[in-house]
Design goal:
By secondary structure, the chain is an all-alpha fold. It has one domain. Helices cover about 65% and strands about 0% of the residues. The chain contains four helices and no strands.
């Protein structure tokens, strides 16, 4: 997540180190589940996770389930709501 936020400074809200750690872990878990190696796909996953987290979803497993399902469905991230 830190890498995604460094590439997208407009997305970086006030996040505590503990939140960033949690979000980093969620990105890593999603990447492993989806077997992602492409940096662009990684950024898509990070954006999805941040979007879900920003809407108030805090349950790790719920964020992962939605992120993985949406990634497998494909499509443009910008055309969907969290």
């Amino acid at each position: 997540m830190r890498k995604y936020l460094s590439l997208h400074p407009d997305q970086s809200g006030p996040h505590y180190p503990e939140e960033l750690e949690k979000l980093d872990e969620l990105v890593q878990r999603a990447m492993e589940a989806l077997r992602i190696v492409d940096p662009d796909e990684r950024n898509e996953v990070a954006a999805r996770i941040l979007s879900l987290y920003s809407t108030g979803i805090r349950a790790d497993e719920e964020i992962l389930e939605i992120t993985i399902r949406r990634h497998r469905q494909g499509g443009d991230l910008g055309s969907r709501k969290a």
